[in-house]
Amino acid sequence: MTPRLDPYKASPEAYKPLLELQAYTDRCGLERSLLELVKTRASQINGCAFCLEMHTREARAAGETEARLYLLNAWRESPLYTARERAALEWVEAVTLVSVEHVPDAAWKAVQAEFTDKEIVDLTVAIGMINVWNRLAVSFRLAHPVQQETRRKLA
After folding, report:
1. Are 89 and 38 in contact (CB under 8 A)?
2. How many angstroms separate the CA atoms of 22 and 26, rounded?
3. What is the pLDDT of residues 11-45, one digit of tens each?
4. Quick one: which of 85, 72, 74 has its CA closest to 35?
């Protein structure tokens, strides 16, 4: 797949506020492990290979297990996620797919049970950010890096 363009080079001014908001979400107080699961789950839904490669790599570096990353797409059927993570995953699905069900009450009740009001806002902003990054990467066909060991297998 060939990238269509480099959006950062084409419009660096557009990236400045995005990077500032991303920096806020990264330091907002939500657990890094939770944020990486949220970013990965949204990227799965949106089919963003660039972001999936990045966030699964970053999650592993932060101590996330392979099993939890492999099972993330089927989190409802796995006992490996906490109640707080489940609420966040339900929320990320509802917010990412807002045009489908307009964020159902069940998702709202689940997230309210596990998060403070500030955390809900920060979580929702973080979900919005990964959705923006997904849309940029998918629209412009950004290519994820290919690790050396993967290159050898492809050769």
Report:
1. yes
2. 6
3. 999 999 999 999 999 999 999 999 999 999 999 99
4. 85
3-state secondary structure string across the chain: CCCCCCHHHHCHHHHHHHHHHHHHHHCCCCCHHHHHHHHHHHHHHHCCHHHHHHHHHHHHHCCCCHHHHHCHHHHHHCCCCCHHHHHHHHHHHHHHCHHHHCCCHHHHHHHHHHCCHHHHHHHHHHHHHHHHHHHHHHHCCCCCCCCHHHHHHHC
Tell me if 8 sits within 8 A of 15, measured CB to CB.
yes
Assess contact for 115 and 85: CB atoms under 8 A: no
Contacts of 3 (CB under 8 A, 6+ apart): 140, 141, 142, 143
Backbone angles phi, psi at 146, to 5 degrees: -110, 120
pLDDT tens, 108-148? 999 999 999 999 999 999 999 999 999 999 999 888 887 65
pLDDT higher than threshold 70 for residue 55: yes
What are the residues whose beta carbons fall under 8 Å from the beta carbon of 8, sequence distance 6 or more?
A: 15
